[in-house]
Structures are given as structure tokens and as C-alpha cells.
Amino acid sequence: MIRVLLADDQHLIREALAMMLEFEEDLTVVAQCGRGDEVLTAVGAHDPDVIVLDIEMPGLDGLSVAERLPGRAMLILSTFARPGHLRRAIAAGVRGFIPKDSSSAELADAIRRIHAGGRYLDPELAASAMMAGENPLTDRERDALALAAAGASVAEIAGRLHLSEGTVRNYLSNAITKLGAANRITAIRHAQRMGWI
């Protein structure tokens, strides 16, 4: 029996997934989490064989959770199937990545493959990630742009990152240039679409 932990902040979706997986003779859901920061404790308490993570969750996003659980069999199931997310997930050791519009049979198959030591990546997303290339932003450029995307002013970004306002403007300007964007707004949209912030 493959023991599965499900983490998704959308209660109805999480419950529906758990019910669908329980129909499979070789799968059982041993724990459910509605917040990313609950997953680490639940993994310690239940020791699941495979962890299924959503990306967008309160407390801690699914990619950050994966980065804190090296060596675990993990699968990302997300509405936000973006090339940058896939690259970050693979770098964190995630072995499966499928969009939420996949069938329950695909999800069950992905869990079995990952439990057996294999990988399961959505083919369209894998191709998009290869075509998109690497994230051109540095960590600081990404941090500054992500805070700007959340509505922070230059002064607020400077305070959060412990930088001068001039340095923040330079990071934002570099990000705009690297992304070939006309302004900060289009740079943010492009970076979000690619999953780079």
C-alpha cells in the first residue's frame, strides 16, 4: 500500500482528490494539509511514501516545502504549470509535476511511478520548460521584482531587503532590461507567466 500525503489549500479539491485516490486499491491518503507550513510536521508524524503538493498555499508555498524535504518522493499538482516552477521543483528533488486538469488516473499513475523511483512530468510543460531556458534574473533581482509584484514601493523593498533605494532601483532596472520589458509592470507579468517569481 502506497501511503500518500495531500497538501492543497482548497478544501474541496483536497477532499475530492483524497476520495479519488482511496478508490485505488494500492493507494491510501494518510494525511491532508491545508497550509504549506503544516506539511513538515505532518511528514514527521505520518512518514508518507509520496507527498503531493500544491504550489500556492498559505504559510509556505509548495516549492519551498519541497526544498525543505530533500530525499522525499514528491509530486507537484498545480494550476500554475509554468516552466520556472518546473525547473525549481526539479532542482528541489521533486520527481513529478502535473497540472490540476489531469485525470485521476494520471495522478494515480504518477504517484505509483514516483513511489517506484521513477519520474512523471507533464510532457507539454517539460517541453515549455526546455524552450523557455533558464531564469535570467539573479536572486536579488527576483526578490525585488517579487516584492514589487506584491505592491511594495521602492522604499518598502529597500527596507525588506536591507538595501538602499538606489540599489533596489538598479535591481529593478536590470530585471526590466533582462526580460526585454518596456516597464516594471510588463516585466512582472512576464516573470510571473514564466514562473520566475
Layout of helices and strands:
Elements: E1 2-7, H1 11-22, E2 27-33, H2 39-46, E3 50-53, H3 62-67, E4 74-78, H4 83-91, E5 96-99, H5 104-115, E6 120-121, H6 123-132, H7 139-149, H8 154-161, H9 165-178, H10 184-194
Parallel strand pairs: 1-2, 1-3, 3-4, 4-5, 5-6
Helix pairs in contact: 4-6, 7-8, 7-9, 7-10, 8-9, 9-10
Tags for this entry?
10 helices; six-stranded parallel beta sheet; 2 domains; Sig_transdc_resp-reg_receiver; 6 strands; alpha/beta; Arc Repressor Mutant, subunit A; 14% strand
Summary?
One of its GO terms (biological process) is phosphorelay signal transduction system. The chain is of the alpha/beta class.
Overview of this protein structure:
The chain is of the alpha/beta class and 197 residues long. The chain has two domains: 2-130, Response regulator (Rossmann fold), CATH 3.40.50.2300; 139-194, Arc Repressor Mutant, subunit A, CATH 1.10.10.10. 51% of the residues lie in helices and 14% in strands. The protein has ten helices and six strands, in the order βαβαβαβαβαβααααα. α9 (165-178) crosses α10. It is elongated. The N and C termini lie far apart (37 Å). The mean pLDDT is 92.
